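2024-03-11 09:14:02 DEBUG pipeline.ingest accepted 1 chain
2024-03-11 09:14:02 DEBUG pipeline.ingest length=592
2024-03-11 09:14:03 DEBUG pipeline.predict start
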Amino acid sequence: MNTTHGLRYTGLILALVALVAAPALAKDVLPDSKEIMRALSDEITRSMSLQMEDLDKPYFIQYTVDDDISYQITSEFGDITSSDRRRSRDFYSQVRVGNYELDNTNFSGDSGGFGRFFGGGRSGGRASLPLDDDYAPIRQAIWWATDQDYKGAVETLTKKRAYMEDKNIEDRPSDFSKASIVELIEPTAEMDFDKSAWEANLKKITARFNKYERIQSSKAQLIASVGNAYIVNTEGTRLRTKDGGTLLIITAELQADDGMRISDSVSYYGPTPQDLPSMDKIIADTDDLVKSLTKVADAPILDRYTGPVMFDGIASAQLFRTLMAEGVAARVDPVGTQRRQLTGAGTLEKKIDQRVLPKSFQVFDDPTVRRVGEKHLLGHYGHDDEGVQAERVDLIVDGTVKGMAMSRVPTKKLSGTNGHARRTPNSGSAETAIGCMFIEDKEGVSEAELKAQLIETAKDEGLEYGLLVRSVRAAGIGSSESDMMAMFMRMQRSGGQQGLGDPIYAYKVHVDDGREELVRGLEFGAVKLRDLKRIIAGGNTPTVYNYIGFGFAGATPATSIIAPQILVEELELSKIEQEHDKLPILGTPLGR
């Protein structure tokens, strides 16, 4: 079962849900459709005979259907700003012509050398299927999209062959690999949801911000969804999985007296609305969010720091996501890629059998894990978007790179999928990505011991304090406008790389008495993968970080990073050099 499917295909509005005492629930049940599978199977068989003149016929076709129901509700300052129910049935085709060694994919010859960023090929065909289970209209839509997809595929393969004839291309891997056949039909998906009750809850939560005069903008966003995902391919896979999810994101933003914008969010995820915390818990967390932001706004600015940094809470998981999540996903450079033009994160494939972390550290990805403690994992799924059963893969063993997350697309060194093909929203094309990445330290110590090591390291370097970071800004679904602007500014300064976000909660830890003093206004210097070798010690308490980011196609696949606290020997941070907007002339009317 893929519990993230319903969250992947709803665009960029994600959000908030909360529980109330025993409301009357409305059950949404998706059709237990046999006509969709019949139409897919019949048309995919017929489509294998597609051929234009003397051009290549398809050697592989995959059809995917997302049959979904989703609710999206947004609330601000105690009122509802949008509330929608969406019923959709989206079809995607992937037609491959040529053969497994050379086909129409993995080619960026027409994209100016930036194929790695744009998926390295075509996105396939797409259509909206009829919502009624009427075999003939469903098959008609499938036929039309497949025909257009095939025409584009043969055109791309022709261009790719012509490009390759004119270039010296070394060690090009095959374009596709075979996978085991999967035959599985899960029961149809259903969800209990009371739209009116959730609207009332959202109003109650966002009205909480009205008592705080310094809050300038705030929002609660909700998505609750359920879906059936169909995958049919010409190798024989026939798969239908049910899935769903509910995501809550509450954001708030204010300004310090000097105009600096301070923002943060709290989020919750559960497979169903009933898996989320109580209203009392959410309200308490909302109040704590405002109190924390107010403290940051009133904290002094730290001009510069070079020395040991302890990453606690989600900050450690955010660091590993930034430095490692892309690298452990094996991806091929499409034919036509101009490396000198690329600035994105590179693969760790070239570092296989090389050490990148201390010897006590282990990293693995296991999308089959549903939860860690009380935390549900947003990156969980049972079968990937190529219909392959998800597997645990050991990525780093004793600090050394030993494996990679793999889709069915081979690389120069590796071939064979382990169930890590993930689609971006509103797209039929899949790319290798992590699901649930776990970082562990076999010699991990308690938080108190790690903090003591931070103090000792800072003292040895002659510093008056070490630095503790508990959260950084991360541009993703639900981020504030200032978070997005901060990301773009980092990319501008670093030549296109997002880099590690600015600290939200950073503390001086004084070496004389261990007291923590909140500071603000810092940004990290260049933080590289090699800095992970300089980890002095790790903790033994994991923190779950559920994340949906942004890509060129919109939202990226949902992932979870589970990491302990870490202490890095030395990093550089400096004051953010930025001209801030002045405070509003009049105070908020809500505070009157």
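2024-03-11 09:14:41 DEBUG pipeline.report DSSP finds eight helices and 28 strands in the chain.
2024-03-11 09:14:41 DEBUG pipeline.predict end
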